[in-house]
Amino acid sequence: MSQLKVASINIEGHRHLDRVVAFCQTEQPDIMNLQEVYESDLPSLATALSMEYHFGPMALVRRPPRDASSPYYPWGVAQLYRPERLSQVHHRLETYVSIQPVGLPNFKPDFNNLMDRVVSFLEFELEGQPWRVATTHFTWTPRGNHTPEQAAAFESLKQLLGKYDDFIITGDFNSPRNHMPDENTNVFKELALMYRDHIPSSYQTSVDPDLHKAGPLQLLVDGLFSTPQYTSQNVRLVPGVSDHQAIVGELMKTN
């Protein structure tokens, strides 16, 4: 049985890069999935961590301060990995929400959801076994409330994921596992019905109480899911890394 250490962090642009580097140097994950990342920050991150990376663009976003003179930079999700651990690495990028007319370098969002939504996949071999690890940053809603916009995006995501019978996926799903218990459904709950939810039930929030601008929200919106071939151990949420807590854990794949 092969084993892979995976981390996932919504890094909030370039606000917490030193914390992200320190976290990764301590934890030494084999794959680090990032959301809300500027492509321009990836070369220095990869160099500092001795990792390689692939980027999944979602939009062009200004770097703070976001005034009229601020330039736009490619923004999206990324996957960094240790090349000495993985072999036959292939990157696949799939879009499940496409805002028209879109397409870098012409698209500049003015609202959280005026951007593409993508899944970035790393496909590779580890100790002779094929693996697939993915990440996404799902459609935003205020305070995690389920909306028709999110429901439509989830239908597209389900169709995309349905093409694959073997994967791990992490990300910021903007939908809380523990919110609005009287609600019939939401994205996190639906994913947990379809796939294995590896976040221990003891966790009630993935928002960092000290670094998030809204304070200590009780919203567990960051997830680690997989198809049944994968089991996990030592899955933890780690505060003090970004405005969202980092996910880290070891995944095992059965033969």
What's the topology here?
Elements: E1 2-10, H1 17-27, E2 31-38, H2 42-49, E3 52-62, E4 72-81, E5 87-97, E6 117-126, E7 129-137, H3 148-161, E8 168-172, H4 187-194, E9 196-197, E10 222-226, E11 230-238, E12 246-253
Parallel strand pairs: 1-2, 7-8
Antiparallel strand pairs: 1-12, 2-4, 3-4, 5-6, 6-7, 8-10, 9-10, 11-12
Mean pLDDT: 92
For the sheet with most strands, the description reads: 6 strands, mixed
Listing every helix as H and every strand as E from the N terminus to the C terminus, the arrangement reads EHEHEEEEEHEHEEEE
Structural class, by secondary structure, is: alpha+beta
What is the overall silhouette?
globular
Radius of gyration: 17 Å
Q: What is the spatial order of strands in the main beta sheet? A: 3-4-2-1-12-11
Number of extended strands = 12
